[in-house]
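Lecture 7 notes: from sequence to structure.

We start with a single chain of 325 residues. Read the sequence below before looking at the structure.
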Amino acid sequence: MPGIAGVQTHRRRFSVFDIVIKYRTIFILLLLVAVFTIINNIFIHPTNLLNMLKRMSYVAITAFGMTFVITLGGLDLSVGGTAAIVGVSLALILGMGVPLVLAIILCLIIAMILGSINGVIVVKGKIEPFLVTLATMNIYRGVALVFTGGRPVPIVSEIFVQIFGNGLLFNVIPAPILIMAVFFGSTWLLFRKTKYGFYIRAIGGNLEAARVAGMNVNFIKFSTYIINAVFAFMSGLILAALMSTGLPAIAADLPLDAISAVILGGTAISGGYGNVFGTLGGALIMAILASGMSLLGAQYPVQILVKGLVIIVAVLIDNILKARS
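Now the structure, written as tokens:
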């Protein structure tokens, strides 16, 4: 009988461990909120929470797009450069007197071209996505710096700034939060309720099996990088609106933050499994860390250090999950 009791205890411990791992994003969120609230109760004030969500909106949107890429088994480090080019291009185009709607459409086309460049090189060149997007990250950033001479370009449209940055719904909810909510819903539907989302998971899980099943693997890969660029495009618009300026050096940390959010949310870094709700939770964790450390007076280098540690912990958890599988 003692042996049976030991087995039951082991199973109970196993179940508790599995629950903690499975819902780790929720546990981490609750823990961070509790800790920062105890340290400084200003953290949980509605104004601070809304500002926190507003500041993390563009990170979350980028992370939603990154969920597709990482689930596919890829990576995209160029999203920060894409966002910078979008902001700079919009400012320059508006400065030429082009109507706002047309300027936004042109910037969308530019972003899609940048995404297609990544996709073509990854698919046709058969080069690792990490190396491709590491290169294009620097190329895109360099293009933004060259076209502006490294100087900020003011945005002349107040309507744009209100719609994508400083506007409020019911004088309460910031516009970027609403945009983030729309992109979250669209991402979840595309990822969970369409064949495209199924193909993404299938290809990331077993590439050869997907080929045998008749999936157009190259097209799915190519289109995923374009979709990811569209998400980076929206992040670039929000950043430009929040700053009221096109800044060529902006969004340098965006790839790191987005990847951290995706991995923290439970998406497998090796591909095959993605979690859109988890990505949202991961983005919230990054936002809470940034807001909490700012309230504590932590300097930027310390925040970068913490983000790096967060990525290591997330990857370790991902490895534990794969080992137990």
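Residues 217-243 form the longest helix (27 residues). Keep this in mind for problem set 3.
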